Amino acid sequence: MFKYYISLLLLFKCLGAFSQSVNNDYESDFAWHVKQVDEFIERFNNNDKTLIKLYNKKHNPVISLTREKLLKSLFNASDKNWDINEITNFIKDVTNKKKQVYLDFFDKGWCAKLICLVNWKGKPERVVLTLKIKKYPDGSSKWVIAAVSANFLKQQWLTDSLAGHTLAAIPAAKNHSTSLHPFSHSASFSNITQVSKDKTNIENYLETPVSNTNRELLTFANEIINNRLQIKHAESLTYEFHQVKGWTFEVSQFERQSQNSGWLISKLTRTAI
Amino acid sequence: MLTFITKRLIIVFTLTIAAGFCAAQELPRDPHAATAKPPVTRHGHRAPVKSQKVKWLDSATINDEKLGHVKIDMKLFKAKAIEKTTELSNYITLLASKNTSRADKNKTVDQACKLFVNENATVEVSNATRSKVSKLDIRTYLTNLTYLSDHFEKVVVQYVDITYVPEFRKGVDGNYYSVVTFVQKFEGFVDGKLSYGDFTKKDITVVLKNYKKIDADGTTKNKWDVFLSDIGVKETVKMVNTFNK
Q1: Among A23, A236, B92, B149, whose CB has the most other CB atoms within 10 angstroms?
Q2: What are B177's strand-pairing partners?
Q3: pLDDT tens digit sequence for A22-31
Q4: Residues above pLDDT 70, as percent of chain B
Q5: Under an 8 A CB cutoff, do A3 and B122 touch?
Q6: Inter-chain contact A136–B172, Cβ cutoff 8 Å?
Q7: What is the C-alpha separation between A238 and A249, in angstroms, rounded?
Q8: Which of residues 25-84 of B touch A (CB under 8 A)?
């Protein structure tokens, strides 16, 4: 009987210890998880104040997190098709001792690609919005739509052109304080619906001046102004970076229980310099 | 047979404890467990528990068109952002608890809404692939939470002891924005057994806003305070879900 109770006691202790180990693993995974693109940029730049460096200093002080290690950790490790030589060359270029490369949140060389579900003439459609950060001399900034891509908008523009209809100019905003604030990306642009709700100030949400050649963006704005298009919600978000000379990379979100999770490089392409 | 099992358990027990020591990590704190009493807040409810301290940019001097040169203590406001997020978490625990009366729950919803910049703030809940997205205004989201205790006899809410708060950025409306990202562990019990459990990642937009305050002597002073705004809730890991079966 005594042996029976000892066995049960050991069983419960094992489960408790296992549970403690699970909680510790989750905390460690979350520390490594790249929570926002801002944190991605901090790690890419080897910022000493970035959360993972502070966490590592506290919990694993013997392990040094070099810039190379951090850069490697920013790649989606579950993709087995990576060309390791490409990654190595990329990291070499970024960490070149003669000229290290750093990402800048306010640089024009990156954008957010947002796939949105919209309602157009009563039917569901999808659009891809290209958003960029616009910074002003007073230090303020906001996200603006620089481009739109959607087949139905191309068709609408063609239809309007053939019918001789010209797109109206974007009306001036009545209230310049409304916008997609600079942290709109942190909640996956859940506030993107504001663009179609705040039609009288639609100018605030577009990269202005809008060129006449930017037909899909002009059509998109016109459809909103004329109450034919409403944005329902954002479906997916990725980022594209062009700030490293000779390279383009895409950053996507990987939600999984792993130290390699969150916003990670999902695609790396060499480009002409 | 029993000796065989006992020997195996001793080995597993020893290895598990050894793994715990080798990991050399702290247990996540659970200052917000629903079974524990939350401390008193400045609104008359229990005060939030302070989170871990992180070193940040201490202050920033801004040249505001309307206010002129203003020194903003960024360290203070980042700490306030975490404090208000913790306060919201405490309210959520109260709302989900069976021990809170309906009248107190209604008051708690009102108090929680005051943490937000306005009631147009939304909570968008999505699953890992964003194939299911639901969006509610903050009051509706909080009110829905009050009915959780109807389904569970006990609710335990815990938080991983890590929050991420990047530097504030100025918006074109003159307010400053940032985000607080953290993970919540939720467990609901039925008949003493864990019926539902999940980890959800929360991204709470925070707004540092300027407002005017009239002092007792009648002078108007410019003040800054942190308010919560839109929340993104992403379901990450489901531990167990016998609730919907």
Answers
A1: B92
A2: B169, B207
A3: 466 778 888 9
A4: 64
A5: no
A6: yes
A7: 11
A8: 25-28, 54-56, 62-63, 65
